[in-house]
Specification:
The complex is a heterodimer. Chain A is built from no helices and eleven strands. By secondary structure, chain A is mainly β. Chain B is about 0% helix and about 55% strand. The chains are: A mainly beta, B mainly beta. The interface of A and B includes residues 4, 41, 43, 104 and 108 of A.
Amino acid sequence: KAGVTQTPRYLIKTRGQQVTLSCSPISGHRSVSWYQQTPGQGLQFLFEYFSETQRNKGNFPGRFSGRQFSNSRSEMNVSTLELGDSALYLCASSPVGGTNEKLFFGSGTQLSVL
Amino acid sequence: TQLLEQSPQFLSIQEGENLTVYCNSSSVFSSLQWYRQEPGEGPVLLVTVVTGGEVKKLKRLTFQFGDARKDSSLHITAAQPGDTGLYLCAGGRADGLTFGKGTHLIIQP
């Protein structure tokens, strides 16, 4: 079974631009979660999608948004990039979601904002 | 304020030594998961503990969930260089999983 695939692997943008990151979950997994990882704050939850609906949302500004398609693939978008958005963005999938369920993470997208 | 505090933040020891890392909170969790993350990769789940007082063993790794389900520990016996990585604990609540900042572990040959 293929794992969680995130593209692109690395991304360099400048302040004010927008960016779209992509995540393909493990086949059959319907829940996709997004996390931001920085050295200072660790892993912080952005949002979770299940069956094309946002089911849970973390404490991030509205510049961070996401969506999920009917094939469970997900995208997240960050508009008006700021220097502080530089981070590793991780996507995780699981069969149905839920707090006790095992998360399968992708390798992440490393975003650098200059 | 971090909901889950992990300690120590950094730990560097020699191969063959034993170590314990901790994950503490003032909140009660329905479950506690431990992940290991290697450079350039996403976290990989090691174990999930659900019952207060539960102990799980994974080869040389022993995980314990506190009786009150607020804290957990990970003990590694005879550490090996392959154990090097970032160890993350994550607590499960109704609003999802909350991660600690992790313990950076380096095992020197």
